[in-house]
Amino acid sequence: MEGSVSNVEVCNLAYTGQFEELKQCILSDKTLACKTDQDQRTALHWACSAGHTDIVQFLLDLGVEVNLQDDIALLLLENGADPNATDKLESTPLHRASAKGNYRLILLLLKQSASTNIQDSQGNTPLHLACDEERVEAAKLLVEHGASIYIENKEEKTPLQIAKGSLGNLLRRIVEG
């Protein structure tokens, strides 16, 4: 273990980009994917900080619990990750941040030119999700950055139709200027 960054082997493999070894390690014991080291960091943290997007993708595909925290997202974006990359449901970090109302992360993604109108497998844009969860500040921010209130999802509903009461009025006011 001389000269390693972490006391957990799988974290070191993630940091040094040893994808094959990491894959074998984790496939033989799935619990390693979520194991934290002495600093409470996981293999995902280490892969992000070193910019190993192949390992990051592998861990995300395994369904590693991502608490899409601002620092992980920032590390990924700083290391050239695509802010519009999608998961299995075709949703982007912006979809997830919007549903959770994570204002700081939404702002960060928008600064990195994340697309506000990408639709997931259900046809929802990040704005649909923000409206559905009544995330007023998130919805306002998205519309101010060009999110359309008129795109229909697969149920033929627009964000405006999903927005309840005062939120709908607020979004209409922003769009109409």
Structure description:
The chain is mostly helical. It has two domains: 1-66, Serine Threonine Protein Phosphatase 5, Tetratricopeptide repeat; 68-177, Alpha Horseshoe (Serine Threonine Protein Phosphatase 5, Tetratricopeptide repeat), CATH 1.25.40.20. The chain contains eleven helices and no strands. It has helices at residues 9-16, 19-28, 43-50, 53-61, 70-78, 93-100, 103-111, 126-132, 136-144, 159-162, 165-176. α1 (9-16) packs parallel to α3 (43-50). The chain is elongated and about 55 Å long. The protein starts with 8 loop residues before the first helix and ends with a helix. The mean pLDDT is 88.
Write the layout of secondary structure elements.
Elements: H1 9-16, H2 19-28, H3 43-50, H4 53-61, H5 70-78, H6 93-100, H7 103-111, H8 126-132, H9 136-144, H10 159-162, H11 165-176
The structural domain count equals: 2
Tally of alpha and pi helices: 11
CATH architecture heading of the largest domain: Alpha Horseshoe
Taken as a percent bin, the fraction of beta residues is under 5%
The value of Rg in angstroms is 19 Å
CATH topology of the largest domain: Serine Threonine Protein Phosphatase 5, Tetratricopeptide repeat
Give the class from helix and strand content and strand pairing: mainly alpha
Specify the overall morphology. elongated
Topology order in helix (H) and strand (E) letters: HHHHHHHHHHH
Number of strands: 0
Averaged pLDDT: 88
What is the CATH superfamily of the largest domain?
Ankyrin repeat-containing domain
